[in-house]
Specification:
The protein has 310 residues and is of the alpha/beta class. It has two domains: 162 residues, Rossmann fold, CATH 3.40.50; 138 residues, Rossmann fold. The protein has eight helices and 14 strands. It has a seven-stranded mixed beta sheet, with helices on both faces. A five-stranded parallel beta sheet has the order 1-4-5-6-7, sandwiched between helices.
């Protein structure tokens, strides 16, 4: 392995970063974050990065300090003469703000992309963006990985011969359709209407789920309102069981309570975001091996196309 590679982590996803470094065949570099009494903080690398290929691992879920910590680390690496700086962002925060959906609002994901590039990043690695077009917000290369590489083998391992793939809303239909084609399974869709953000007013089912084991597929689960309502709706339509597979476990507000009280048999997520609490219904699959493999391919100038699935 190249001696010119160093991997550092922010504080938000250090558990995942340790796993990635272990799979890569090294250990995390030493970075210290000094906190001042007023809440200001300053990360510093406690070892040289001059002439090194530096990977900085940090998901940028709220609070926004996680994003700003990553920006400070990028700037520190640039000023310390790193040869290249790759931001490994398993969960890309502000991705839901990818367009103007009403007057006088910001396009947050475009702003984040601009900040990362202005600060000095050379490449971005991320996973299951809320909207694929966010890649176009960057002038730097973006390696957009898919959790389907991990989820597809898991779905195949629990195949009852009676599975059907489902989308919790019309926006997720493309993703669910990709899974259904790859696995040669049927497809069902929940159509939802919202009156305000994070609150679902009405849902209907498109497709026949009677007697089926339903696999709901989505890029993230936030308050779990849509997901749990969809699960209960599928069960009311005669589904035998309902599992959900979501890449990013945002799980805010009443999410854990909703999941526990829902008809979901299981919620399968990745460790792009650390769980706030444990639950018997939540299973976590790690993305560490995938990221380590892509990072190795990048360093050795090899193709990474084999790591893309759906």
């Amino acid at each position: 392995m190249s001696k010119g590679v160093k991997i550092f982590s922010g504080r938000a996803t250090k558990g995942l970063a340790n796993k990635i470094a272990d799979q890569f065949g090294t250990s995390l570099g030493n970075v210290i974050v000094t906190e001042f009494s007023d809440g200001e903080f300053q990360p510093s690398f406690e070892e040289t990065v001059r002439g090194q290929d530096v990977f900085l691992i940090q998901s940028t879920m709220p609070p926004t300090e996680n994003l700003f910590e990553l920006l400070l680390m990028i700037d520190a690496a640039k000023r310390a003469s790193a040869r290249s700086i790759v931001a490994v962002i398993p969960y890309f925060g502000f991705a839901r703000q990818d367009r103007k959906d009403k007057p006088r609002v910001a396009i947050g994901s475009k702003m984040v992309a601009a900040m990362l590039e202005t600060t000095g990043v050379d490449r971005i690695m991320t996973m299951d963006l809320h909207a694929d077009q966010i890649q176009g917000f960057f002038e730097k290369p973006v390696d957009h990985l898919y959790a389907s590489t991990i989820f597809l083998p898991y779905i195949q391992s629990i195949d009852t011969g009676n599975l059907i793939i489902a989308a919790p809303d019309a926006g997720g239909a493309k993703r669910a359709n990709s899974y259904s084609k790859k696995l040669d399974l049927g497809l069902a869709i929940c159509h939802k209407q919202r009156k305000v953000a994070n609150q679902v007013a009405e849902m209907t089912v498109i497709g026949d789920v009677a007697g089926k084991d339903v696999i709901l597929v989505d890029d993230m689960v936030d308050t779990a309102g849509t997901l749990t309502k969809a699960a209960d709706l599928f069960l009311s339509k005669g589904a035998k069981s309902v599992r959900a597979i979501c890449t990013h476990a945002v799980l805010s507000g009443p999410a854990f309570e909703r999941i526990e009280n829902s008809g979901l048999t299981e919620l399968v997520v990745t460790d792009t975001i650390p769980l706030k609490q444990e639950s018997d219904k939540i299973k976590v699959l790690t993305v560490a091996e995938l990221y380590a493999a892509v990072m190795k391919s990048l360093i050795s100038q090899e193709s990474i196309s084999k790591h893309f699935n759906v």
